Amino acid sequence: MNNLTGLSRRSFLKSAFAGLAASAVLPSFSRSLEKQRPNILWISTEDITPHLGCWGEEFAITPNIDQFAAEGIRYTRAFTVHGVCAPSRSGIITGMYPSSLGSCNMRCTASKPDSIKCFTEYLRKEGYYCTNRAKEDYNFETPKNAWDVSGENDSVKKGPVSHWRDCPEGKPFFAVFNFMETHESRLWNSADFENTHPEKLNKSQWQDPANMQVPPIYPDTEAVRKDFARLFERITEFDYFVKERLDELKQAGLYEDTIVFIWSDHGNGLPRAKRWLYDSGTLAHIIVRVPEKFKTYDCPKPGSIDDRLINFIDLGPTVLNLAGIKTPEHMQGRAFLGENLPPQRNYIFAARQRIDERHDMIRSVRDRRFRYIRNFMPFQPYFNPVPYAEKCNTMKELRRLHKDGKLNAVQAQWMADRRPFEELYDLENDPWETKNLADDPQYSIRKKRLQTALYNWMVDTRDTGLLPEPEMALETQRCGSEYEIFHSPEGKERVIRLLNIANVSSNPSDSDRPLINNALESKDASERYWAVLALGEMDKPGKNGIKNLENALNDESASVRIAAAQSLYFHGRKKTAADSLIKELYAKNLQDETVHYAINVLDSYFGDDAKPAIERVKELQDSNPGRYSKRMIEIFLEKFAV
Predict the structure, then answer these.
(1) Where in the numbering of this chain does the Sulfatase N-terminal domain appear (predicted)?
(2) What domain range includes position 15?
């Protein structure tokens, strides 16, 4: 709406009000002045970086999305908070950072406090009819009040249909339709490319692998090209899906009454994209169309590009703001559409924690040009095998060519056995983030500024990832939820202590020995955990360092004992370390998170020195282990052909 239109409407209303008042029909007019609440529709999809025609992709066939973008606003700097679905979606539905909420580990079951609600609960309280078709995957149990209807395929499930068309008369709706066919698993058939084109597509929409432009982080081979070609075909399927959803609105006469969002949960499903914190994994698309009647005076014009920094935790607060509902104070997201908008972001933060079977901890901060990454576990290889991701044909190709020594220097970076403890990239000159500038003195001031912003964010949001997962589980039982562990009066000070030693642990020096020794004496098991990891990373821990690690094998905390065994193994005390981990697996009242952690360490670092653990690991198969403990057991036994 331009200012002239807005003024003329106000003048009209003023005149109309005067006439109505004179006719003594003010109550009726007051009802007509009541602001219409918008319907809001989300059309979401899985695992696509913005590979769309409206984003400049030459071979993308997305005419319906492109037309929608011409009518709406493209947000070109929108980032997910996690590069993988369940943590990402837990942030979207709550408007909070998963690392703050305690839902940052892949497919965990966090204990969300009752005070923190899904944003749809606030919508429903204000009269919105809310449906979800169909993915939840929030890393916590979906509250019963989150949706009026949420379900999978309507032909399979009994009960109400999960669709806005069943909205009671007089109510506005908020509806989600999620498209699954772009998910990474839908690319696995690309090896048989010619026989597996999506049924929805006609031949003119089939992609030619020879046309694909392969990014420099991947080898330019037929297998990789087929993966990209199949991805583009699946995106065309999504384009059909978008058309169907928009046509439903138009046929019902609701297109001009409905604000529509189109978005994807994170980057595409190829290696070093999904699951990672680079732009390839976190940059995603958001396109929004706001009908004329709901536009504010500063709403961007149709076809506009908005390049402000947006985090996906902003989606929920934006919907609330458009619906005229105040954003709850606990939400960390910021509305980016509607009236009374908060200040724009200066930074985008992101996190990676346990990914399926593999423990990890990475944090990232990005401004408009640079990205800084902190690897808190630099002893991890980049591509520590995750069985689900290994099914990708591009991943198989990377493994094959790496084994044959045929990857170039850029591609081989991601096959390294270790990571640098920090990374810095200039996105303007290095969009694929291949040249690490962290050690370049020219960028020291920039790095320090981003580093400080990242550490302040971790403290301010009470980053629960600083707790090893077994300790987090135990403390959750005591506190009631992961979130509440650090939200006690002394929580901030505890986070600062943990962050101080965690920072040291990834790049320790001799000058850090006093801090490490103090942490070893702490009453806080998580401080001791980071201290023993620090000793494992020291080039020369010395006799006292080794002695401290040996003493830590008898710590009261299983997390500390396992970390100490890992660190001793790194320093050549292989039999002692292996014996300690086997002993750990025989402990009474064995915690599932401990089983997972111990076997993960054995599998990731111990090689053939882990063989003595085989018999005990086989026994644990029958102990009803949790989902990822079970899979970690299977990975370990398969490694030794058991």
Answers:
(1) 38-325
(2) 3-33
